Amino acid sequence: MTTESAAAAAAAPESAAAAAPVRATVYGHPRQGQNRELKKAIEGYWTGRVTAEALRDTARDLRRTHWAQLAGAGITEVPTGDFSYYDHVLDTTVMVGAIPDRHRSAVAADALDGYFAMARGTQDVAPLEMTKWFDTNYHYLVPELGPDTVFTAEPARQVAQLKEALALGHTARPVLVGPVTYLLLAKPAPGTAAGFEPLALLDRLLPVYARVLAELRAAGAAWVQLDEPALVQDRTPAELNAAARAYRELGGLTDRPKLLVASYFDRLGEALPVLAKAPVEGLALDFTDRAAANLDDLAAVGGIPGKRLVAGVVNGRNIWINDYQKSLTTLGTLLGLADRVDVAASCSLLHVPIDADAERDIDPQIRRWLAFARQKTTEISTLARGLARGTDAIAAELAANRADLASRTASRITHDPAVRARTAAITEADGRRAQPYAERAAAQRTHLSLPLLPTTTIGSFPQTTDLRTARADLRAGRIGTEAYEERIRAEIREVVSFQEKTGLDVLVHGEPERNDMVQYFAEQLTGYLATQHGWVQSYGTRYVRPPVLAGDVSRPDPMTVRWTAYAQAQTAKPVKGMLTGPVTMLAWSFVRDDQPLGETARQVGLALRDEVEDLEAAGTSVIQVDEPALRETLPLRAADHAGYLAWATESFRLTTSGVRPDTQIHTHMCYAEFGDIVEAIEQLDADVISLEAARSHMRVADELAGAGYPREVGPGVWDIHSPRIPSAGEAAALLRKGLGAIPAERLWVNPDCGLKTRGWPETRASLEHLVEAARRVRAELAPNV
Known about the structure:
This protein is of the alpha/beta class. Helices cover 44% and strands 11% of the residues.
């Protein structure tokens, strides 16, 4: 179908497809509430200030509010089962009864406390491993499965939420993680023999899904959505055959609702023919720019005649307004490829904030370029009306949309000639240290005089209530700048003093002045916009406010030099300068979509380079540039890896390559599958890398050693995302395990991540244990050193 005919189809209200009702739907909604009510209730429950009943009441009220808002915006089919206290993959683990043995007694004693024990651990029991959900900044709890895993159907939560929505009069569709994706996301349980793959359990898991589907049908579900985003990744023939078998079996059931199999985040590729042929009633596909190939691929397989197609034409991961005309053209083309076409966001709206209209500090004209969850639901329903009734029915919306898009394109915010001239002048030498690593390492050993197994932290220390109150008081005008800064100075003095007394070797200033590791810098760089209410879930009750990257980036003034220099003046030990790297500055922001990401990364890299050079000039000998998002942002298809890694590593080197050989450059990464990017980690050319390793039992050390990584490494020995305090013996055991892979002269001792979310009592105890562990192992090594 040509573009002209597609547009005509979308505009023609009498076409056969358009004559049928067009559903407007979403796959999920932000969970937290406009004022993060869920976070407050859960954290109150953990501390005993909120009862379990009150927590459940808050959750129920939030679900009802979300559904009412969706229905009010014109969403005609609302999702259920997407709401979670912590994580939807953990909810799936509960639904299929795959509780690890170490958590079974806690779950049996109290289901809610046991659920949180799996998520966070207890003093006696370690939590499930946590890692990134595909290439997003959302973290999921990794299922632990083994050959002896027994699945049982436990769909009470999913059934209850469906009944709740139906009782309120909504047309509702339960959304579940599909069985193939669930197994592909899982890892072998600790102690499982090598060679076991969780996908081998598919035939054992499918009867449990059959039981869940039957119970949802009995509860009133007409449709159930099974999410299979793992199928947009490169998959082996065996994995594709498993998907075909799964949906042949589930589709062949008689006691089930209609099945809608959903994919998102990229093109479905070789899995598309598999699902198109499956005996299911519908497919949901992503048709945004990153998955645009789905349109041609769907046409190539002859469409899905007789099936429902849910078209994700509104970007569920970014916050820019939709291009209505472009989306209507896509929808018009799709009308000929399915029995019916419905309109949706490309994925769950979990990944965007709730309401752009709440951002009163953003220029009203710029705010019109933004679409958070509420605005996206309006876009979806507008497009559904346009598809069903023709473009005349949405003429006013189309005109306003064209004006807003033109306003953004023409804005001076978007283009800075000086920034563009600087990036155009970049040479290869700008992205390379002048000396090879071996020469730098020798110079740094002489300059820093650190002991064997040097100890440090990742950067942040606890953000106490007093600090947050001081920041709020400053914003509200209740205190002046001098009073606020004295509070920061006092906190830095306390943090430095504690680290010296504890015996840490390389100190940090604790970052008391920083609200967030990305937002803090975004507020001081040109091109970025900060939100006040744009909270997005990162994991559990951890919410962040990703800034909006709207235009060209530069650094008008130093951002960190003052406080780092103040901390260094308090001690003779080295104090690390702490920066967030360019890839993470992009990954944890809502990035502009009007130029290649690599170009934006170069701009950010040059802005941060100015900061690095100023830190060095002020006497900072150790500078850490965090890149936890390097692996997370890796494209889902291997064919796209090389292009991404080229600009990602280049932007890091642009940031760090202007320093002397005796200035030690650190980087940090956490909660991702690092084994996939070992070569890229080497290409960063950092002198030291610290990584999360405690939950994964030091696996990353083995991965780096196996790849021949030649630099210094700090695999974490304290899982800071759990409230438990590791003993010195436990930390020492992990350290010894790390020494089995990394030589002592290249091994650092540190936590997994920053300490911002921890309290002072557990921080003091855990760091004291960490330092004691290092002392013990140094003593053991002394005869051999």
